Amino acid sequence: MKKYTLLLIVSMLSCANLFAQGLDYMNKSAFKAGETLTYKLKYGFLTAAEAKLQVLATDIKFDGKPTYHLMAQGSTSGSFDIFYKVRNRYDSYIDQDNYSPFLYTENIRENKYRRNDKARFYQSERKIVAKKGTFKSPVSQTFDLVSAYYFTRNLDLSGIKVGDKITIHYFLDDEVTPLTIEYFGKETIKTELGRIRCLKFSPSIRPGRVFRKDSRIFLWISDDANRIPVKAQAEVIVGSINMEITSAKGLIKPLETN
C-alpha cells in the first residue's frame, strides 16, 4: 500500500455524502455526540485496514461558538500491518449550528513516512491558514474531508434525480480542490448489519498514485435519517478496494435494515 492509500478510507467516507451541498437542511441533525461508525477495507479478498469515525463531545469553542469534535482513524490489519504499518488520525472541529469547520488536524504514520499538519478555516474571509501558508478559496464554504461528510449528512436529499451533479470544494494537501458527484439512484445493499436501502453516488477522481485515469468510485449511503456510508468500491492502479460497514453505534435514530 503506497503513501496516502489509507487516506482513501476517509475520502470514501467523506465523498459518500458530498453531493447534497446546496439543498435544504433536514429538520433535525443526523448525528449526535457519542456516534461511532466502524468499517473494514478489503484489498481483493484480504482485509487490509480498519477505519473508525466518531463524534466526540467537547467544550472547545471557536469565536465563542460551541463545536463538535470529529475524529477519523485508519489502521492496517492482518498481513498488511506486518509489511506496511499505518496508523492515521484526522480531527476536525466544526460549528454545531452550520457544521462548517474551524480547525482540521492530521497525524499520519505510514511505515517510515510521517506527516503532521493543521489548517484553520476562516469561512467569511474565504481563506485557510495552514503550515505552508495561507490559501484562498473561491467559495464561502470550504471543508476538510472529515467535516464535509458530517456537514452534508444534515441536508435534505429528497429532491435528487438520477444523473444530477454538483460540485463542492475541500482543502487537502495544501490545495483547495473541486469535487463533482453524480447520483446513480437507489439500491439495497447486503451488509453485516442486514440489508440496507441506500442512495448510490460516484465522485470524480484525480488519477495519480492511487487511481488510474479510467478508475471509478461508487458509494452507497443509507437512505434514512442517519445518512451513514454503508459501502464503497474503488478501482485502483492494481486491483480494487472495497469498504464495508461493520458497526454503527450511538446513531440519532435506529438504522433501518431488513
From TrEMBL:
Entry-linked InterPro entries: DUF3108
Domain of life: Bacteria
GO MF terms held by the record: exonuclease activity; helicase activity
Keyword terms, alphabetized: ATP-binding, Exonuclease, Helicase, Hydrolase, Nuclease, Nucleotide-binding, Signal
Residues making up the signal peptide according to the UniProt record: 1-20
Protein name: ATP-dependent exodnase (Exonuclease V) alpha subunit-helicase superfamily I member
